[in-house]
Amino acid sequence: MALTIHVNGKPREVQADAETPLLYALRNDLGLIGSRYGCGLGQCGACTVIIDGKPVQSCDVPVSAVVGKQITTVEALGTDAAMHPLQQAFIAEQAAQCGYCSSGILMSAKALLDVNNNPSDAEIRKALQGNLCRCGTHSRILRAIKRAAKELRGEQ
Ligand code: FES
Ligand code: FES
Fold this sequence. Notes:
Layout: E1 2-7, E2 10-15, H1 22-29, E3 48-51, E4 54-57, E5 70-72, H2 85-92, H3 102-115, H4 121-127, H5 138-152
Helix pairs in contact: 2-5
The chain binds FE2/S2 (inorganic) cluster (2 copies).
One FE2/S2 (inorganic) cluster (FES) is lined by residues 96-101, 133-135, 137.
C-alpha cells in the first residue's frame, strides 16, 4: 500500500505493507541508509531516529504507526559544509571506531541536547541506554556530547 510519511521536513511516499518496520522504509524505499540495521530487535539502537522529538528505534516501529508524525534521520543532522556541533565534536574527540553505532548515538544525543543543553554525565548515560557500542568508545562519546553541549551553549 502507499503511505505518506514525513521525513526530514518533507512528505515522502513509500510502498510498504503496514507492518513493515520504519527502518526498512527509510533505507530501502527512501535510500536513507544512515540509519543502520544492527539487531532488528529493538536492542542495539543502531537504527535510532527522532520521531516527534523522541529517540525511537526504527526497526521496532511499523511504518503505518508513524503516518502524521515528524521523523528526523541522521541525514538531516548536518552536511559536510555545515556540520551539527555533535558531528564536529564526534570528529574532534574521535568518538567513533568502526562507526556502526554512530548515527543512532548521534540521534539519541540530539534528542537529549534539543531539550537539555547542559546534561550531566548521568543524564547522557541514561539517554544512551538504548544504544550499544561494541567498540567500547563510550568515554569518548560522553566527552563528545559534553563538548557539543558546550558549543550549543556558546561556551567554546
Ligand atoms: S537494529 Fe534497531 S535496535 Fe538494533
Ligand atoms: S564505534 Fe563501533 S560499534 Fe560503536
